Amino acid sequence: MRIITLFVTVWALSGCVYRIAIQQGNYLDPAAISQVKVGMTHSQVRYLLGTPMVPGGFDDSRWDYDYYLKTKRLQTPWRSHVVVYFESNLVARVDSNVTSPPPAPGLGKGAASPLPRGGRPF
After folding, report:
1. Which residues lie below 8 Å from residue 84, measured CB to CB, with a gap of 6+?
2. R_g of the chain computed on alpha carbons
3. Residue 65: beta bridge partners?
4. 3-state DSSP assignment of residue 94
5. In CATH, what number does 18-96 get?
6. Numbers of helices and strands, H then E, in the chain
7. How far apart are CA 46 and CA 59, in angstroms?
8. Most exposed residue of 17, 18, 65, 107, measured as fewest CB within 10 angstroms of its CB?
9. What residues contact 87, with CB distance under 8 A and at least 6 apart?
10. Exposure class string for 3-31: b at 16+ Cβ within 10 A, else e
């Protein structure tokens, strides 16, 4: 009888494990991506989007930005990708599959608020 009770207890507690959200890459906000315009310089794009994940090692005419967010074990991860093409060190075009901002990691159902009690920052 004790073995069955122990087994049931261990089985019930195994679902109580906290799983941290896995976030990799540059956070890609559609508002920031829409600000990247043809004719901008490398430094202007870096200011808006950050440093690219894989800067051009051989050719600096293409910058790739990737974002990956997995919040739950059985949920499909959020993926987004932006490519900025340069010609003569100026933006020639931007290819993006980002249509909406990704969900905030850790602020799902039942998560604690990032603000202290009272709702005001320090």
Report:
1. 36, 45, 49, 52, 62, 63, 65, 91, 93, 94
2. 21
3. 82
4. strand
5. 3.30.1450
6. 3, 4
7. 17
8. 18
9. 61
10. eeeeeeeeeeeeeeeeeebebebbbbbee
State the Cα–Cα distance between residues 66 and 114, nearest whole angstrom. 25
Name the residue among 92, 35, 29, 31 with its Cα closest to residue 62: 92
CA pair distance 53, 118, nearest whole angstrom: 38
d(CA 48, CA 41) in angstroms, rounded, equals 11
How many residues belong to the chain?
A: 122
pTM strictly above 0.70? no
Q: In this structure, what token pair is assigned to residue 109?
A: 């159902």
Terminal Cα-to-Cα distance of the chain (whole angstroms): 53
